[in-house]
Structure formats: structure tokens, C-alpha cells
Amino acid sequence: MNSYYSPSVQRSKEERVFVVILREFTDIMQPCTHGHTYEKTAKHRQELLETRMMNHERRSHQYFL
Asked: What is the pTM of this model?
């Protein structure tokens, strides 16, 4: 999936998890997802992006119905 977002994965030392920050998503709390491993965090990031894009497409189609 191609996207024009720039997700940032960072290590949270306090909570010992990886967190994802998506600066383009100003309408949701940051960090927007997390995981205990980098791989799990990357999977959550991808799922979040896919969900946001599907929701955007649904809202866009509602205007034409």
C-alpha cells in the first residue's frame, strides 16, 4: 500500500514499548499506536493506516450516494 504519510516509530524508554507517531493525523491522540516489538508496532502502524484510508474512502463515497 502506498501512502503519503510519514509515520515515526520511536522507542519509549519509560514504558519499554515502541510507539508510532503520525504527525499528519492531527485529529487523534499521539502516539497513535504501540507494540512491544518493532515488528508488532510496524504491523499496528500498517493496520492503522489501512483503517484510516478505508474510513476516508467510505466518507468520500457517501457524498455521491
From this structure: 0.73
Number of other CB atoms surrounding residue 18 within 10 Å = 22
Element (H, E) at 57: helix 38-62
Residue 30's pLDDT is 92
Residue 3 resides in a domain: no
Is 56 inside a domain boundary?
Answer: yes
Residue 1 within a domain? no
- Asked, for residue 2, whether it belongs to a domain, the answer is no
pLDDT tens-digit profile of 3-53? 577 888 999 888 899 999 988 888 888 999 999 999 999 999 999 989 988
**Count of CB atoms within 10 A of residue 34's CB?**
17
Domain that holds residue 13: 8-62
Go through the chain and tell me how many residues it has: 65
